[in-house]
Amino acid sequence: MKIKYLLPLTLIAIALARVTATTVVPPTFDQLVQQAELIFQGTVTDTKSVWEGEGAQRHIETYVTFQIADSVKGNAGSSYTIRMLGGTIGDESVVVTDAPKFQVGDREILFVEHNYDQFVPLVGIGHGRFHVQRDEETGRDVVVDHEGAPVKDLAKLGREEESVSAAEAITPEQLKSAVKGQLQAQAGHPAK
């Protein structure tokens, strides 16, 4: 009987998440760096979905653990776990539109804010995730955005960018270097 009432509530929550997710204004690179409490490069070592809450508040959350390769802002330690709303347990799933999905072995650069306090603890939801992948043509690692498009110009994040080939995409080292440069610029020019 309780499950009959939980289903409509869950569907309403998912519908609201879809409305919210579609209204996210893509952050600029400056906003990504400034808003992030923690920026790191890491590899997914574990994902675990669990039931949380009781009664009408019961929902699925997923914990994603990363082995940290490089802390760029803040100190993530050697291992760091983020908590996100949604996931799959058995044949039951809760899907949050535009939320990133992680798999063991994924290499990522994440811009984390309010971990354990918001439903997706990344700046701009998916915009705070940069996937690192190997370019088969050049053999070098490149950075792609949350939609899988190679990132070429950080100044154009959050704006329309013409199609970029993986050969033109920036490397993880270039992205981390740009973050460090932005952090130094922000330290030299405190907010007014």
Note the topology.
Layout: H1 2-22, H2 29-35, E1 38-52, E2 59-73, E3 79-85, E4 87-89, E5 92-94, E6 107-112, E7 129-134, E8 141-144, H3 172-188
Could you tell me the mean pLDDT? 85
Question: Low-confidence spans: pLDDT under 50, at least 5 residues?
Answer: 1-6, 15-22
Strand content: 25-35%
Count the helices. How many? 3
Order of helices and strands: HHEEEEEEEEH
Class by SSE composition = alpha+beta
User: Radius of gyration, Cα only, in angstroms?
Assistant: 18 Å
How would the global form be characterised?
globular
Largest β-sheet summary: 6 strands, antiparallel
Strand tally is 8
Cross-sheet strand order for the largest sheet: 3-2-1-6-7-8
Distance between the termini: 56 Å
Relative helix content:
10-25%
**What's the domain count?**
1
Q: What do you see in this structure?
A:
- The protein is an alpha+beta fold and 192 residues long.
- It has one domain.
- Helices cover 23% and strands 31% of the residues.
- The protein is built from three helices and eight strands.
- The chain has a six-stranded antiparallel β-sheet.
- It is globular and about 50 Å long.
- The N terminus is likely disordered.
